[in-house]
Write a structure and sequence with these properties.
The protein has 96 residues and is α/β, with parallel strands linked by helices. It has a single domain, classed as 2-Layer Sandwich (Guanylate Kinase phosphate binding domain). Helix content is 28%, strand content 23%. It contains three helices and six strands, in the order αβββαββαβ. The strands form two sheets. Strands 3-2-5-4 form a four-stranded mixed β-sheet.
């Protein structure tokens, strides 16, 4: 079983979200591909990113509990990708 974890990275404003929105639309009917949830300490509709909004306190608690597969700080906000991606990958699902 071959699976992939596909990272989409780039500078702020470089079009990552537009690329992922396009991918979500084009791959909506393709089985075996899921887009990871991004957890961010920013309001739900701020910045145009598709994300789960968390307070800094909730983000910190989740991080301490080991609920992020990866996390980072950028431009004064905390970002994380949940450990659910590990289960998806184990089931043979490609994760973007």
């Amino acid at each position: 079983m071959t699976t992939s974890l596909i990272y989409v990275v780039g500078a702020s404003g470089s079009g990552k979200d537009s690329l992922m929105d396009y991918g979500r639309e084009r791959l909506a009917d393709v089985s075996g591909v899921l887009f990871a949830h991004r957890y961010i300490t920013r309001r739900a509709h701020a910045g145009g990113e598709n994300h789960v909004s968390l307070s800094l306190q909730e983000f910190t608690a989740r991080n301490k509990a080991g609920l992020f597969a990866m996390h980072w700080n950028s431009h004064g906000h905390e970002y994380g990708v949940g450990i659910e991606i590990n289960q998806w990958l184990a089931k043979g699902i490609t994760v973007v």
